Amino acid sequence: MSDAPNASHPSASAPVIRLEAVGLSYGTTRALDGITLDIPASRMVGLIGPDGVGKSSLLSLVAGGRAIQDGHVHVLDGDMTDAAHRRRTCPQIAYMPQGLGKNLYPTLSMFENVDFFGRLFGHDRREREERIQQLLRDTGLAPFADRPAGKLSGGMKQKLGLCCALIHDPDLLILDEPTTGVDPLSRRQFWELIETIRKDRPGMSVTVATAYMEEAARFDWLVAMDDGRVLATGTPAELLRQTGTDNLDAAFIALLPEEQRRKHREVVIPPRRSDQGGDVAIEAKELTVRFGDFTAVDHLTFRIARGEIFGFLGSNGCGKTTTMKVLTGLLPASEGEARLFGREVDPNDMDVRRRVGYMSQAFSLYSELTVRQNLELHARLFRLAPDTIEERVRDMVERFDLANVIDALPDALPLGVRQRLSLAVAMIHAPDILILDEPTSGVDPVARDGFWQILSDLSRQDNVTIFVSTHFMNEAERCDRISLMHAGKVMISDTPEQIAARRGGGSLEEAFVAYLKDAIAATDTTKTPPTPHIAAAAKTHGAMHGALSFFDPRRMFAYTQREALELKRDPIRATLAILGSLILMFVMGYGINMDVEDLSFAAMDRDDTTISRDYVLQIAGSRYFTELAPITDYDDLDRRMRSGELSLAIEIPPGFGRDVARGSNVQIGAWVDGAMPSRAETVRSYVHAMHATWLAQRARQLYGNAATTGDYQLEVRFLYNPDIRSIVAMAPAVIPILLLIIPAILATLSVVREKELGSIINFYVTPVTRLEFLIGKQLPYVALAMLNFFLLTAFAVFIFRVPFTGSFVAFTSAALLYVIITTAMGLVISSFMTSQIAAIFATALLTMIPATQYSGLVDPVSSLQGAGAVIGRIYPTAHFVTITRGTFSKGLDFGDLSGPFLALIVTIPVLLALGVALLKKQAK
Amino acid sequence: MRTGNIVQLGIKELRGLFRDPMMLALIVYAFTVSIYTASKAQPETLNQAALAIVDEDNSPAATRIITAFSPPFFTVPRLISQSEMMTRMDAGLDTFALNIPPNFQRDLLARRSPAIQLNVDATRMSQAFTGSGYIQSIVGDEVSEFLSRYRSAAPLPIDLALRARFNPELNKSWFGAINNIISSVTMLSIILTGAALIREREHGTIEHLLVMPVTPFEVMASKIWSMGLVVLVAASVSLIFIVQGLLAVRIGGSVPLFLFGTALYLFATTSMGIFLATSAGTMPQFGLLLMLVLMPLQMLSGATTPRESMPEIIQNIMLAAPNTHFVILAQAILFRGAGLAVVWPQLAALLVIGGILFFLSLRRFRQFLQ
């Protein structure tokens, strides 16, 4: 880090981030509008504001993950539009994107996840292990180091994300809503962790976007944002003073423009009316759900009265979601029972479904439909009367403030707005019960208050029963009753006031944390409290070597190793790739059969003499034809040929025998089914040959042996495949096809999958270069393809008994070049594709057709015409087919195959260059 | 079951598809450019077969033979030396090499029955047989005509009038075009339904659907009709404008009957797509499974090589695949002009196979949702 000494120990006055008139648009939506801002260094800075005001966009611009459209972004004393500066600074920046574990790899263990990031930043093995041990220990994750990231609770995922971010001692830590969807205890631990780290590394600047105002209150400096603009900046105290309020929630609302402020009203939930009755809407008795030997929900019992607002609180993964899924009929209960309106939950009971509205934790509406289309679709599916749909949709749009996004696609909307849409959809059919799984996760305070007002109205006025889970304590306080859950069990269930009172009358949050700590202490006595001393890790500063070079094998191998691990964790994929190739080889080797035999034919012998029968018999006796019942008349002939029953029909005219004996002119009629030209062609040549043979026989009978010696002889030598076995021609040609399609699909998906699931962000914000990324991803698939190659070759030689006559070394070298090409083709295709469906289809289309049709598998390339001929000349499969046939059947070596070898060698850099040129290092 | 739900969900599928421009572009490509180039590239029977001749005689008789070979069946023969012959064959430059020995003409006239050697690259099966047949008859004609100036011989007066029905010129591009439509139809219908289902699961929307008053049957039926419709429209447009229009292929039978058969076929393939999707966990697994199923189906359906030549067991197994029946049906209607009376067994088979596949997928789909 000697190259940027200022950045690691900045003076307090120099800003770490300087934004000048920064603007950003997605299509016609203006996400950021002329932001000018200096963010001081070595501070904990919070970005606060409602959803969709551009906080995330701003952070991704600062992290270098997104291309800058307008204005200047200076981070750590350099312009982020400058690629060289980005490369220099990205080892000093750590970025944790929004969404639980979005940049983690779910099948990799905790250790492997952190290890991957360590490699990306060029640490050597010893250093990595030391640091990872320490980070995991300090975050209390060490006991779970081998657990796959996908199986972690939300809080653990976020801690792991933090470990990944801290592995390279960043000077600037950027966290985008790191505690959204995380339970209070984990949240508290998370911030304690950050505090400790900051104490040890006071020079580090931290920039956080958050929706929790109580968290923001503890930050050093705040930026309040709204609608792509900055509303105010300053310390929390300054903001409170400026607005004359006593808490940040209120301060923020006061900062909003008049028009928006008017929308906000303090949530007041009237007490339940006595006439709301005591009939039970939701009831669970000894409800238990097990997944294998893991008990997710453990003998849960509760009753929720009609019209009640019932809150579910608990750490991540404590069984809240599972319980809700059982109530909606998505999951069957292992034991016990769940009842809605006194009726046992039955997934086939459509009437009950219509009375329940459910909102799942993850956004699960159709991202390909607009807001309006989503609402309308659900209205129709819930069988609202067609004439009321329009009004109901309008009503919902108004209630949830969706009017200005009515025609937008959900993906373009910020999280909070999407949650509002989800709720609108869950309520479109005016259900009697609403089951809401963390509905306000990631939603800003103003919107949350509005949301709760709606819930209140529904409960108190419409007598709707609401079963809601949340991590927000102020929301929990609004419930009629709450249950605290941990590890599948309810710890306590009562009114919020009572619960707080029982633990010494502090806040509900304190009570909750106390209950959780008790429960954790009871179950997990082994855990030692974290003893953070993260600064020790910061001493070793050999980290950044290679960070500035264009190609660092270590970073490349980071991707290789990760990809290989993922492949290993998904044995089905690897097995399918290998076993699939063998099955296909078998099928194609037998299926593409050029030995045309057993063709159906029938004769219409209108002569029926010895001679005519002899003629027909000659055809029937050959192995090429199978005789069917004779043709009776022309109609029969026509019908049977039309149906495809006959490939060949022979008509022998009346008086044939007599005419042959007399030596007068006579003609035999033959019809070939031309629907399949290649077959027809073969039939034609067979018939011609048999006719000629028959004539020669006749001639011998008539004129004696003298006539049989021809004027000349044509000696036909079938080279390379003397028995003319189809398999000898086909098996070697099938290998190139299989080595193309499967590796190409795997390589394409490996990149497109990252794009679709979001982990591509790691490529955007870490020092890894495009070439390292591509080659790194490619290597495991090259290895897999080579394994395939050896298996396929063995299969051809030992099972199909195709003799191998040439140089195996040459063949293997060519195969290596070829699989490098085919995987690179996959990577090039992946750069155009964003969805996995399109990627599969495109790869199938771009590989299968050229490989089977233009590469000399059946028709030689030299015989192709038009575009096909051009493709056949440049398509690598064609060259490799030449090499496989040459080495298999023609006994060739390197020297004889220099042409195709050269073609393969030239293709590799071309494809890699293309891949690098097309791959984007930043999101657009 | 409610038809309303099926219609609404199907419309949702269509809307989703229209939001994916890349997918639309690929569909258009698959049914236009891909079909056009594939059919144009298909060589016409024996086309431009690479022929080289080693002429060691340099006599009028040899010249006569050499000049008899001409495009389109053969390339203009390249005259090479004896030493070049094998290297060129090894490199795959020539499929045929004809060697006319020294003193060929002299021996011919002296009735010494000289031997011409024809070397054939037998790894190129498609041309090896037909090509050597052609060469044999061309050389034979030339030799006998050459000799006829010197002597007369009376061959047996028995002619063989061989005609190809339905496609008299054995025009391969017709065949190629139809074949490519069939393979695009298969590929697309399986991918569209199967991948759409996996996508719904990966994005969690399927779960959302199931808390609504919608049955698995309705979800599945909606995917089948909507994606089937897309493919059917694409296939019709392609058949009418690309195959009949641009490629000027003469279609023998009734296009509506063929499209009806296609609809039945799509019923089967879309059900198969759902079945595959429920068997595969993730998109990469689906991709691989797809290849594993798609390629054998295409290769063994009788579209690329005649069914008769396959081992009997494969022929019988393939009777269970919808492709086989669809290929038979397509060839019968489009080339041979067959009507309902001829193709009804195939239609019935498609209906039965489609029904079974639908039933199996529905069962699996229900389990998949649990």
UniProtKB/TrEMBL annotation, chain A:
Location, primary (coarse class): membrane
Domain (ABC transmembrane type-2) ranges: 696-922
Superkingdom in the source lineage: Bacteria
GO cellular component, one term: membrane
Keywords, ordered alphabetically: ATP-binding, Membrane, Nucleotide-binding, Transmembrane, Transmembrane helix
Compartments where found: Membrane
InterPro entries associated with the record: AAA+_ATPase, ABC2_perm_RbbA, ABC2_TM, ABC2_TM_bact-type, ABC_transporter-like_ATP-bd, ABC_transporter-like_CS, P-loop_NTPase
Pfam families referenced in this protein's UniProt entry, alphabetically: ABC2_membrane_3, ABC_tran
Membrane topology (UniProt): Multi-pass membrane protein
TM helices/strands, residue ranges: 572-592, 727-752, 779-802, 808-830, 901-919
Domain ABC transporter: 17-252, 282-512
GO MF entries: ABC-type transporter activity; ATP binding; ATP hydrolysis activity
SMART domains, per database record: AAA
Protein family per UniProt: Belongs to the ABC transporter superfamily.
Its biological purpose: Involved in beta-(1-->2)glucan export. Transmembrane domains (TMD) form a pore in the inner membrane and the ATP-binding domain (NBD) is responsible for energy generation.
Protein name: Multidrug ABC transporter ATP-binding protein
Originating organism: Bradyrhizobium centrolobii
TrEMBL record, chain B:
Pfam families (alphabetical): ABC2_membrane_3
Keywords: Cell membrane, Membrane, Transmembrane, Transmembrane helix, Transport
Transmembrane segments: 173-198, 224-243, 255-277, 283-301, 313-335, 341-362
Cellular component GO terms, alphabetical: plasma membrane
Domain ABC transmembrane type-2 positions: 132-368
Record's subcellular location: Cell membrane
Domain of life: Bacteria
Membrane protein topology class: Multi-pass membrane protein
Gene Ontology MF terms: ABC-type transporter activity
Sequence similarity: Belongs to the ABC-2 integral membrane protein family.
Name this polypeptide is given: ABC transmembrane type-2 domain-containing protein
